Amino acid sequence: MANEEDDPIIQEIDVFLARSLLEKLYLFQYPIRPASMTYDDVTHLSAKIKPKQQKVELEMAIDTLNPNYCRSKGEQIALNVDGTCTDETSTYSSKLMDKQTFCSSQAASNVSRYAAAIYKKGELHLTPLHGILQLRPSFTYLDKADAKHREREAANEGGDSSQDEAEDDVKQITVRFSRPETEQARQRRVQSYEFLQKRQAEEHWVHLHYYGLKDSRSEHERQYLFSQGHGLAENTELIKSPSEYLMMLMPPSIEEENDKPMAPSNVLSMAQLRTLPLADQIKILMKNVKVMPFANLMSLLGSGTDPTAVLRCVQQVALLVQGNWVVKSDVLYPKDTSSPHSGVPAEVLCRGRDFVMWKFTQDRWVVRKEVAAVTKLCPEDVKDFLEHMSVARINKGWEFMLPYDEDFVKKHPDIVQRQQMLWMGIQAKLEKVYNLLKEHLTPKKQEAQSAHPLLVSGEQRVNMAKAKVKQNYGQLEKEFQKQKAEMKSNDPLAKTDVPNIRIKEEPVSVEEPMDTSAHEGLNNGLVNGLHPAQGSTEPVNGHLPGGCIDRVAQELKAFVSSTFKKQFVLTLSELKRLFNLHLASLPPGHTLFSGISDKMLQDMVLDTGCKQILVPFPPQTAASPDELKVYALWEAGDTYDQHRQVLLEIFSKNYRVRRNVIQNQLSQECGEDLNKQEVDRVLK
To answer: Looking at the record, which segments are called Disordered (predicted)?
Structure first.
């Protein structure tokens, strides 16, 4: 208290924060000059800056008339740098060192605590600094002088040793091919001093114009150092509570955080994991585990997590294989990466791994040699794919890592069916890329390597076959009686015909051939883990239930119409591929999931105004039957309908036609001469 009384407050000064030059104001620190010479007297010849690096170079004129200037030394330096000849590239055109270059370096990395202040009429105006640069003399002209000296020495030595200077010596050149760069090598190269210097040198200089202290432009810019408004609303940064002000003066120490041991970058604790969003948690878990049942995933996410939200997120980073979730290939191999073994780009790796995943949707066993033969990838990459999701068995191959998750398939049939549609789209892409044969597409029946081996005796097989026959006989009898009643009620003339219809009845005996179709599920001919008879909503005999026929027809017609309006001509194979992708994008439980046969799809194409074009493909073509069926939109309602119809008729006579023939035919049929742009548009 005594000290406060001895040191009374003399004056209170209002402080204002000026924002006009925010992030534009730099402080330049020049070298110490003689007291008799101020920087007002120095003539700035030029200035340039690299904004990203905050690097500045200034050229200042030297007063050669000053009595302290050594003229002979200045002439010697100019002679060493430029030599005897002077041209536009000379550093000192006056043959005298009459200027000096100053290059900047950052004085402080954190300048947020510094500001420029100006005091006027009892007010203190502060402008935060964006950078503090120290300018030091640059001696690059000495390097230039050394280079000139070495060139002169080399020329003298070359002249003494040989008189045939025009002849070039033959030198042996060694050609080397660089290996594919790994991710770790790329990171080391990016962090190297040589790379950083190269990056800094690539940034272009921005030339500036220098204004003196007493210039009118300088006076105008200096006014921006004053706050434009004195209201409190514009200086809220200076209004702080005592605790906030104390926190700003003495920020908390971060030494404790720095002393903690750093975990590896690829290690994340469960406590840290649960602080992330749900989608990121699932992505990290699937990327590390690679294969996981849905129940295990829910247990790792903690109690209270919504299963619906988890299902929605897991479908974005994983695919369903035999009822288990396997991480997608593009998550493990992001774009612009390559294989650490062979340097193959990520796109090729994703295709190869998708092929392995697709094989496991068909069978529990995969042979490594078969995968390598189809994908044409190196053995190390193929082994990585298989180790992600399977286990090697001696003399058998690679078996899928987890058992078939029947509980998930029963609880979530919509998810299973949607994933099945996705796999159909992936299969279509793989067929085109790898030219898969039928032996690759059909799953192998390996009862000995079944996931659930069961021992069934002969007596049990006979009993099961007898029960199957009785069940089928009862269902047929019920269907027949139902059809018979409908025919009687709808058509009175049918009464005379119905009695003539009889079902062949045969006695069920022990000698009845055994129906072992119930046991074909023991092999692993699964499609995405879904048994053919399980949860099936396929139409019976190609007919949908009466209540949803109209809705399905409307949805199917809308899809076909929009597709042909975009592409005009499609093969049946391509149309089916687009339809499967469309199904995969629909929400679970959509009406189109009730089942659409190929016949229904083709009939709808014809009903929407399209026609089948019978293109005479050559008989030796390798195309599939669906690829030979070509459909085209006959009338689109635009000005090119007539031209398009003529073009389609041309292709119905020959599958390959010359351009001039097409142009002549269009001109004859349409009665007008089409230019090249119009013909290109019709062909496109």
So the answer is: 146-169
